[in-house]
């Protein structure tokens, strides 16, 4: 296997000659972003450059180039303004949408609640949500079966998990339904607006505006009402192990003055909004694909189940026990390799002229980091389309740094990665020890489709049979 990466010294990487201001290229990406990326890589290699609508675009497909960009040159790039504008119109100014000092301050204040040592405090909340979610949607009598839309199930479950982790709040059925519909509406609208040059102001009657504003108000009411309830119950914080308790008590040690040491009410609300959004659909997507893969590969489901039965039995697992489950974690990692929820990181924008792998990247250029393509590259993953959890078992050959990026890399790496890892393993433990999963006779997994995150193009139906 050739594992060399092509590093060139030519000024600008090769790429397609675009016609009509790049409109055909834009249309191809809108129609099939993964296919368009594959075509670029196959035709031009690890670094690609083209122009669209008067702008320079770069794609970097190799782990070295990506790490160079995200880690070594982190100060030379920001997240592209357009997707951030789309996000901040809904979720406000928060750790995901800000840059520079404003981002650094928010990240410092939010981070302690996501450190591995905080996870033990959340595990009880995640367990409660999982037990309730399985009871509500799946059969409870041995031998009984039900066939369900897996993604609706995992999304409702992870939404409940994040509400409990953030606020210790168990959502009512009506709240869950409302939040579910609102999230879907905002995702579809977000995907649509990404391809617009600008989102008009809220008073302008643009397509999808009314539904978007209703959905935004529904989520904001849900989140703000939880913060208000907590503030009214002053003095109660100390007993809570949830994220809001940490956030209300948080202080920025590096703050220049008292006012900037804590988050304002608005910042707390905006950050909780974005943690809710970023913290459930991604996790739901991984669990959806993992359940599909377990149904498709019963030989691996058996390995995971045996490990869980031996190590945990019927008990509720602790965070340490979860992190020691080799097959469980390897199968989840492999699901995230095949189906990374964020198949492209946010586009980056070059703040100044810079060289990446010897290639010239001009100030103002837009850069795509195509995670899905790196995860499906035979140089790092032999037989890349095959589900093979062994790749992530302790004695497996080392995977090059930068070739596995489900949570991104560099200073803007996912803030919730430890939480997501614990949550996904915990849900997997409960599911695998209670249920057998099966696809319909002869059915394959649906194709993936980018819908903000990487969802199944057609509904994934799986039959759950209670063991
Ligand atoms: C399997 C689940 C998850 C995946 C695959 C995932 C993926 C990612 C990725 C790839 C990024 C970086 C994007 C970029 O650099 O362009 C990111 C950032 C972020 N994630 Fe996650 N995420 C997951 C779960 C979570 C959870 C559970 C939370 C919070 C509760 C969360 C909150 C965030 C936030 C706030 C950011 C922005 C961080 C910053 O810019 O400083 N994510 N996530």
UniProtKB/TrEMBL annotation:
PROSITE patterns: CYTOCHROME_P450 (PS00086). Gene3D superfamilies: Cytochrome P450. The keyword S-adenosyl-L-methionine does not apply. Its cofactor is heme. One of its GO terms (molecular function) is iron ion binding. Keywords: Heme, Iron, Metal-binding, Monooxygenase, Oxidoreductase. It holds the Pfam family p450. SUPFAM superfamilies: Cytochrome P450. Heme binds at residue 414. The keyword Metal-binding applies. Belongs to the cytochrome P450 family. PANTHER family: BIFUNCTIONAL ALBAFLAVENONE MONOOXYGENASE_TERPENE SYNTHASE, CYTOCHROME P450 FAMILY 4. This is Cytochrome P450. It comes from Paucimonas lemoignei (Pseudomonas lemoignei). The lineage of its organism: Bacteria, Pseudomonadati, Pseudomonadota, Betaproteobacteria, Burkholderiales.
């Amino acid at each position: 296997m050739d594992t060399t990466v092509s590093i060139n010294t030519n000024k600008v990487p090769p790429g397609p000659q675009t016609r009509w201001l790049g409109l055909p290229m834009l249309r191809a990406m809108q129609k099939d972003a993964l296919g368009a990326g594959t075509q670029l890589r196959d035709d031009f290699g690890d670094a690609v450059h083209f122009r669209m609508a008067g702008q320079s675009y770069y794609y970097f497909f190799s782990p070295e180039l990506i790490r160079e960009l995200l880690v070594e040159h982190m100060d030379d790039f920001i997240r592209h303004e357009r997707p951030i504008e789309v996000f901040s119109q809904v979720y406000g100014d928060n750790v995901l949408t800000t840059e520079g000092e404003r981002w650094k301050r928010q990240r410092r204040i939010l981070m302690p609640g996501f450190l591995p040592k905080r996870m033990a405090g959340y595990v009880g909340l995640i367990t409660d949500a999982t037990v309730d979610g399985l009871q509500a949607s799946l059969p409870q009598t041995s031998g009984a079966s039900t066939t369900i839309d897996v993604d609706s199930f995992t999304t409702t479950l992870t939404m409940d998990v994040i509400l409990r982790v953030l606020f210790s709040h168990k959502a009512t059925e009506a709240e869950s339904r409302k939040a579910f519909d609102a999230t879907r509406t905002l995702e579809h609208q977000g995907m649509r607006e990404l391809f617009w040059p600008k989102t008009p102001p809220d008073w302008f009657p643009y397509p999808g505006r009314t539904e978007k504003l209703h959905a935004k108000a529904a989520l904001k009411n849900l989140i703000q009402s939880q913060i208000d309830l907590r503030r009214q119950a002053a003095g109660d914080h100390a007993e809570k192990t949830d994220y809001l308790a940490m956030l209300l008590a948080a202080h920025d040690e590096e703050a220049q003055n008292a006012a900037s040491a804590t988050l304002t009410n608005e910042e707390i609300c905006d950050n909780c909004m974005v943690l809710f959004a970023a913290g459930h659909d991604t996790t739901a997507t991984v669990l959806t694909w993992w359940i599909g893969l377990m149904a498709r590969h019963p030989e691996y489901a058996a390995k995971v189940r045996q490990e869980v039965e031996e190590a945990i039995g019927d008990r509720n697992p602790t965070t340490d026990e979860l992190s020691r489950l080799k097959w469980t974690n390897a199968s989840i990692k492999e699901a995230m390799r095949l189906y990374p929820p964020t198949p492209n990181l946010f586009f980056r924008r070059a703040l100044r002229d810079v060289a990446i792998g010897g290639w010239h990247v001009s100030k103002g250029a837009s850069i795509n980091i195509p995670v899905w393509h790196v995860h499906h590259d035979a140089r790092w993953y032999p037989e890349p389309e095959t589900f093979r959890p062994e790749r992530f078992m302790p004695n497996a050959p080392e995977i090059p740094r930068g070739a596995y990026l489900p949570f991104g890399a560099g200073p803007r790496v996912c803030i919730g990665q430890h939480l997501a890892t614990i949550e996904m393993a915990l849900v997997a433990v409960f599911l695998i020890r209670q249920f057998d999963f099966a696809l319909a006779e002869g059915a394959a997994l649906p194709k993936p489709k980018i819908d903000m995150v990487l969802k199944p193009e057609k509904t994934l139906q799986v039959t759950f049979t209670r063991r």
